Amino acid sequence: MCASVKYGSRGPALIPRMKTKHRIYYITLFSVVLLGLIATGMFQFWPHSIESSAEWSLDRRSVHDAPLVRIPMSSPIPERGDLSCRMHTCFDVYRCGYNPKNKIKVYIYPLQRFVDEVGVPISSTGLSREYNDLLSAISDSDFYTDDVTRACLFIPSTDVLNQNSLRIRETAQALAMLPRWDKGMNHLLFNMLPGGPPDYNTALDVPRDRALLAGGGFSTWTYRQGYDVSIPVYSPLSAEVDLPERQPGPRRYFILSSQTAIHREYRVELERLKEENGEALLLLDKCSNLSQGLASVRKRCYKGQVYDYPQILQESSFCVVLRGARLGQATLSDVLQAGCVPVIMADSYILPFSEVLDWKRASVVIPEEKLPEMYTILKSIPHRQVEEMQRQARWFWEAYFSSMKAIGMTTLQIINDRIYPYAARTYEEWNNPSVVKWSSVNSPLFLPLIPPRSPGFTAVVLTYDRIESLFRVITEISKVPSLAKLLVVWNNQNKSPPEESLWPKVTVPLKVVRTKENKLSNRFFPFDEIETEAVLAIDDDIIMLTSDELQFGYEVWREFPDRLVGYPGRLHLWDHEMGKWKYESEWTNEVSMVLTGAAFYHKYFNYLYTYKMPGDIKNWVDAHMNCEDIAMNFLVANITGKAPIKVTPRKKFKCPECTAIDGLSLDQTHMVERSECINKFASVFGTMPLKVVEHRADPVLYKDDFPEKLKSFPNIGSL
């Protein structure tokens, strides 16, 4: 039996047609569901950095909008603080784990308003602008994560920068209520004004269990070495007053004291120094004739004369920073901003970021008992060193003190370096201003095995007044096939170089650079004109080297681009009778140095010599007008761990006409000073990096009984 099927004009009518109003209803419902799914997906996968960057901005979120949390009176109180804590005992590094960027992840707790049972806040000021700036900087940095499970370090949103505004017991209870507190493990607190009257403890009095403390005012008694971080006391004037950088050099005053609340005994002693040294010392105090307010904070007075503060700090070479009720003083930040060398007198004070910063380069630390001798001590510092300290002081402020962001990022980087020591910043990265454009130069340690021959080398000739021998050197060097450029370093400020028409005619570019001071280190300055990888340093009296010897030396350097490749060889020996190192220039079977009066090296070492030479070696060389070549040998050997390479047998290089008046190296005291140099440099480096070898490089067919025309380098000089 068959069922009949009705056909319409549009096909079989298997399903009744949906009414129009029902169709619209289902389409609308489907659209709403689809839009909901899209919105959910966008919320789930949208970058969280957008949210985190807004969370800590006072412009978008007020502390009054934060949820209120009441602290029961019976809430637990953390322990006082474990002075024995170290990173390996009180910090769980396994939370940090491994990540390709070698960066810790920092979580900031959500903002909350803690009050006691009767509704009184734990802080009289709430969230300060400084702490908000700090949290905002961290939330905008690569350290931040909003995923609490990924965090290595936790920072409470409770502001404890100023202990004066805190209720100690209730603040400690609030910390203990944090969900991840765990006796303070992996928690970091920032505090700049610790302690309170009458004793003014040098660390935060809030009980904090095992939490790390970034504190501004630690003493050697409260600072946990390698665990806590000593930070500066931020000066609000840093943001309010713009002090343009001033060039280092002598200032109107030699010593200036600007603090207003120093102990009476210190004030009396400073007044005595003022009487003894007159106008060299300016002793300021607060202005009694001005009404209290913001204007008076920025003024200092001396006998009725009013000075603008902190601008007056730029008028002095040295600025006194004495301890007050607290060890840490905001004055230190003001002094650094002014480029004034701080004279710090605060016994047992742990200087800010002293774990990584070399304060000897930017300040003078004097025991409080030696305050009467301050003027004499400061007068003994050379002018050149004072200028370097002024420059370093200003850079310290710009890099580490200038803002709450700078302070916070430096603190986190120090902790990061402890956790990932293999990726930590070096001493140079922490302490050397990044003024060098390293992008244009490569380290020879990472060059191809053999640099290309085509670019050739740049000959850098250091000269002072020997025009005739200089021209002879230029003429001989110009014959070398691989010479790309001649650079003459004119080291005489009292005499102009010869006119252009008098110089020898050469086929390569010749440039004369006039220096501002007569310093031997000028020969190793990384001049922009040096475009080749290879540099030939040569004196203006080395006229006996032939073009074949120079070309062969360059070919040897191409095989060993990380070495010093030179001609005059020297040796260092240990003098057992004297118990110190000795410089030896006699003919021996061994070599540990080649003199840069004629030597090839990679231009990378010019940058290292000029900007990264350890200690005061460069200044010492310039002051003594000797040993720049020994310093370069120390530097290269210390970096590479390798000995230099002597090429060709020649031992005599200088022009026979040169007299003792013409050259430095012929002075009678020369050899004694050279030995002193070796001992000085070994002391600064903390080791003896020079390596002794018993070989030299000669051309393959140098001594073979072979036709001269078939030898690549036939004109190799004899002894």
UniProtKB/TrEMBL annotation:
Membrane-spanning parts: 24-46
SUPFAM superfamilies hit by this protein: Nucleotide-diphospho-sugar transferases
Signal peptide boundaries: none
Protein location: Endoplasmic reticulum membrane; Golgi apparatus, cis-Golgi network membrane
Keywords: Coiled coil, Disulfide bond, Endoplasmic reticulum, Glycoprotein, Glycosyltransferase, Golgi apparatus, Manganese, Membrane, Metal-binding, Signal-anchor, Transferase, Transmembrane, Transmembrane helix
Residues in Exostosin GT47 domain copies: 101-381
InterPro entries linked to this entry: Exostosin, Exostosin_GT47, GT64_dom, Nucleotide-diphossugar_trans
Catalytic activity entry: 3-O-{[(1->4)-beta-D-GlcA-(1->4)-alpha-D-GlcNAc](n)-(1->4)-beta-D-GlcA-(1->3)-beta-D-Gal-(1->3)-beta-D-Gal-(1->4)-beta-D-Xyl}-L-seryl-[protein] + UDP-N-acetyl-alpha-D-glucosamine = 3-O-{alpha-D-GlcNAc-[(1->4)-beta-D-GlcA-(1->4)-alpha-D-GlcNAc](n)-(1->4)-beta-D-GlcA-(1->3)-beta-D-Gal-(1->3)-beta-D-Gal-(1->4)-beta-D-Xyl}-L-seryl-[protein] + UDP + H(+)
Domain of life the protein comes from: Eukaryota
Main location: endoplasmic reticulum
GO BP, sorted A to Z: heparan sulfate proteoglycan biosynthetic process
Subunit structure: Part of the heparan sulfate polymerase, a dimeric complex composed of EXT1 and EXT2. Could also form homooligomeric complexes. Interacts with NDST1. Interacts with GALNT5.
Task of the protein: Glycosyltransferase forming with EXT1 the heterodimeric heparan sulfate polymerase which catalyzes the elongation of the heparan sulfate glycan backbone. Glycan backbone extension consists in the alternating transfer of (1->4)-beta-D-GlcA and (1->4)-alpha-D-GlcNAc residues from their respective UDP-sugar donors.
Family named by the database record: Belongs to the glycosyltransferase 47 family.
Entry-linked PANTHER family: ACETYLGLUCOSAMINYLTRANSFERASE, EXOSTOSIN GLYCOSYLTRANSFERASE 2
Name of this protein: Exostosin-2
Native organism: Cyprinus carpio (Common carp)
Taxonomic lineage of the native organism: Eukaryota, Metazoa, Chordata, Craniata, Vertebrata
Gene: LOC109072430
